[in-house]
Write a structure and sequence with these properties.
heterodimer, A: 471 residues, B: 382 residues, globular
């Protein structure tokens, strides 16, 4: 019987920590408590002002009526009437100021506080798992469960750190980290549900990105990629989450390289060229395209090949094929310039490994291949709209009606379209048409503002997030 | 005993003058048939008949009299067609397409600061009446799919109206550059048909300039015969006409950052090549130095005209976005050309994915109705 002091001490401390995880929601609420109470003040003041304003208005109305009743009798002194009017006006101004403060406090509340109420996966995979482990942990089974406990602790720390970073309002003058991650949270909603499951967790800023499955389904975005342009990279992480989830249902498994290629193919199918551009131009290292280690070369080939496969045979997607061709040329030039191996690149393109991964990916995502009413990914069937928005982001006239591309079943599809539009403005099928460097910040800013206004209409609190259904 | 008979030319002159007077009297009846057109036609036809009658009365030399006789007879013939067309329009024989076409051509004229055409009417053939400025659309009309034909006929009108100021020894002169080029080429080549062939090429070029791939697509599918290699009569061969349209589309593609027009150019070029191969005909026109030279000059004239720039087809992505929205709620700035391109894109989708012939025909008919409504919406918005 394992009852030595070493084990007993560890079990006690571990249980205490597991309970702490289980009370994550309360932990966060305690942090918020003082600030939340302070942010309630404008609302309370606004309610009080309503009564005061009503009385002031009534006083003014009565005074004016008395003044009008018999001008000759001078029941009401002019100076008095003027003072009443002035008082009423000042109260109205204060009321407007309080209303504005109420709106600002609500916006600040949205930025500062993360509600975990809708984060079902955090509850299911972290909190409930922690509670279960806490109940069942004994000195006898401690060492078997030690790794699981450590995993939960890592997740807990990352979650707390991520929430703190998101709500700290760090960022530049145009965009906070929190706002960026509000958008990031919504990206997984565009994936089709898997046996009724949709992702309901959190994207957090982190030091490095996590490729292995996380129990709480937390998606990590590593610095220095906390930028609008890098947002599509998140889809690779979610591709892994999706694949792991699917494997749990089917009992299948893949080697790490194949899993990575499948995640890349999935992310490209679901996200579009924005993912391809982000991966090839921001993430993958062309100097690592080498014969001795084929991973990077194969990943690039998988991404470009997947993009091509969507466009081939589609009468209206010739520009997409042209874009895929350009990306391959640019990647190849990058490999050459970075002294990677061109031979390894060409071998990767010809390889059947990524093609097999693409076939697996297609079987997991119902839209692109299996026919039905939507034989194309939604971004591909909206390529004209994406082009149109790309022009508007670079200063063209006209508005972008983001909302009309979404319904209850589509998830936050408009975010995908906007990401693709921004990347398309930056990287066109023909190189000479790319937006000049001095326009890129403006493009990103306009795209982000449009997305945030859509996710959080000015003056409104965010409601429950839409969940994607089978399209 | 010999009977003195009047000079046949005099008899003919009197006959034509009488006919022109009857035309002036008959013009108001157009308003009975078609109130919308009555007002437009009355002014232009009355003015034109009076001009020709005045010239005919003033003519003294036989050659001059003959020239104005021809004008008068042609004007009477065109008026007959106009009356018939107005009746056909009011009977709905054209399905309402000529109304859409007229409003569209008016918009183009406003944008290019050109005069308006007088009317668009259904007729037995496509034609631009150069005397009456009435555009005829051939019956049976292929519905809204043939709407782009109006821009081809409009191209003839533009050829006759497009002016440019030129300095001659320090004195500014207004010239008609297209008409001048065509007349000069026909004269120098001692081949009068060059004038008409060149007119057709310019009209084709203008139609593509305005509509992008749409008119090309319509011609390849409905009108052009790859086996037709001859250029007799007033029209050059289909292959030569297509070559001009492809050249203009290729130029439009150089201005298009989306890449759609490059794809359309390749697709239509390949479609033509396939059809030509099927009948054993070459896709390219037979070389002809005179027509080749005329092609280049007309092409350059079109591209360089600042007056026509406002009606150049552009932003094909707007058309594709409209197709993705199933023609609903066109954005401000959407043109009729965008709507037509969107409609053709949707039609190709139907043709690609619907294998049952009856369902395909029904879907295309429904699409045509939706397209007409969208064109109307864009025109009404102005």
């Amino acid at each position: 019987m394992a009852n030595d002091l070493v084990v007993r001490t560890r079990v006690a401390v571990t249980k205490r920590n597991l309970e702490r995880i289980n009370h994550l929601t309360e932990t966060i609420k305690r942090r918020e408590k003082g600030v939340a109470e302070f942010l309630d003040h404008p609302t309370k003041l606004a309610e009080a002002m309503t009564s005061l304003y009503a009385r002031a208005s009534q006083l003014r109305t009565t005074t004016e009526e008395l003044a009008d009743r018999d001008p000759g009798q001078e029941l009401i002194d002019d100076a008095f009437l003027e003072q009443v009017r002035s008082l009423s006006g000042e109260i109205e101004q204060i009321k407007d100021l309080v209303r504005a403060a109420k709106r600002e406090s609500e916006e600040l509340r949205q930025q500062l506080f993360e509600s975990l109420t809708t984060r079902k996966d955090v509850r299911t995979f972290l909190l409930e798992r922690a509670a279960e482990l806490s109940r069942t942990l004994t000195p006898e089974n401690y060492w078997q469960n030690h790794a699981s406990c450590e995993g939960l602790f890592y997740e807990y720390v990352d979650l707390l750190r991520g929430i703190a970073l998101r709500s700290a309002r760090f960022g530049d003058k145009d965009l906070t980290i929190g706002e960026l991650f509000v958008i990031a949270d919504e990206l997984p909603s565009v994936w089709a549900p898997l046996e009724g499951w949709t992702w309901q967790s959190l994207a957090v800023p982190s030091r490095i990105e996590e490729n292995r499955s996380t129990d709480a389904m937390v998606l990590r975005v590593g610095f220095p990629e906390w930028t609008f342009w890098a947002l599509p990279l998140l889809q690779h992480e979610f591709g892994h989450v999706y694949l792991v989830r699917k494997n749990r249902i089917t009992g299948e498994s893949q080697e790490p390289l194949d899993a990575s290629l499948i995640a890349d193919a999935l992310a490209t199918l679901v996200t579009g060229p924005a993912y391809a551009c982000a991966m090839l131009l921001l993430r993958l290292h062309p100097e690592q395209v080498q014969a001795v280690e084929p991973k990077v070369g194969l990943r690039a080939a998988a991404i470009i090949g997947t993009l091509r496969s969507v466009a081939e045979g589609q009468a209206n997607l010739q520009p997409l094929l042209t874009l895929a061709d350009r990306l391959e040329r640019e990647w190849r030039a990058g490999v050459q310039a970075a002294e990677g191996s061109i031979a390894a690149h060409e071998a990767a393109v010809e390889s059947g490994t990524w093609k097999a991964a693409l076939n697996t990916a297609r079987s997991l995502v119902p839209d692109p291949v299996n026919g039905g009413q939507r034989p194309l990914p939604v971004w591909a069937s909206s390529w004209g709209t994406i082009n149109d928005w790309a022009n508007k982001l670079t200063g063209g006239e006209g508005s972008m009606d983001v909302a009309k591309h979404e319904d209850e079943t589509s998830g936050r599809v408009s975010l995908l379209l906007m990401l693709n539009a921004a990347w398309l403005a930056r990287v066109r099928p023909q190189p000479g048409a790319d937006a000049p460097p001095e326009q890129l910040d403006g493009i990103a800013d306009r795209a982000v503002r449009t997305m945030l206004d859509h996710l959080r209409p000015p003056g409104a609190r965010t409601g429950t997030r839409p969940t994607a259904n089978v399209r | 005993m010999s009977i003195e008979v009047e000079d046949p030319l005099v008899l003919r002159r009197d006959s034509v003058l009488g006919g022109l007077a009857q035309v002036r009297q008959a013009i108001p009846s157009v308003a009975h048939l078609d109130p919308q057109y009555g007002a437009r036609l009355e002014k232009s036809l009355k003015q034109r008949t009076r001009e020709v009658a005045d010239e005919l009365e003033a003519a003294r030399e036989p050659l001059e009299t003959l020239q104005w006789l021809h004008q008068g007879e042609a004007l009477i013939a065109e008026t007959l067609v106009v009356l018939g067309g107005a009746a056909a329009r009011s009977a709905g024989l054209d399905g309402g397409v000529s109304v859409l076409a007229l409003d569209w051509l008016d918009q183009l004229s406003d944008a290019a600061t050109l005069d308006h055409v007088s009317a668009v009417i259904p007729a037995s053939d496509d034609f631009m009446g150069m005397l009456t400025h009435v555009v005829r659309l051939k019956l049976p009309v292929d519905g809204v799919w043939a709407l782009s034909v109006a821009t081809h006929e409009y191209g003839h009108f533009v050829a006759s109206e497009l002016k440019r100021r030129k300095d001659a020894d320090g004195i500014p002169q207004a010239i008609l550059p297209v008409e001048h080029l065509l007349a000069k080429t026909a004269d120098e080549g001692e081949f009068p048909s060059l004038y008409w062939h060149g007119h057709e090429l310019f009209a084709d070029a203008l139609a593509t300039w305005v509509t992008g791939p749409v008119h090309l697509e319509y011609c390849v599918r409905y009108r052009f015969d790859p086996a037709d290699q001859s250029h007799e009569g007033t029209h050059p061969s289909s292959a030569r006409r297509l070559r001009m349209q492809l050249a203009v589309l290729e130029h439009l593609a150089t201005k298009d950052v989306s890449g759609y027009l490059t794809g359309d150019h390749a697709r239509l070029r390949d479609l033509w090549a396939t059809r030509a191969a099927a009948v054993g005909a070459p896709p390219e026109p037979t070389p002809d130095p005179q027509l080749d030279g005329l092609h280049d000059k007309l092409y350059r004239l079109l591209l360089k005209s600042p007056q026509l720039r406002p009606i150049r087809y552009g932003k094909p992505e707007a058309a594709q976005a409209l197709a993705e929205a199933d023609l609903a709620d066109p954005d401000p700035g959407t043109t009729v050309a965008h709507v037509l391109n969107a409609a053709w894109s949707l039609r190709r989708d139907v043709e690609q994915h619907e294998s049952d012939a009856d369902r395909r025909a029904q879907a295309i008919a429904a699409l045509a109705a939706k397209t007409e409504a969208a064109v109307r919406q864009v025109l009404d918005r102005g």
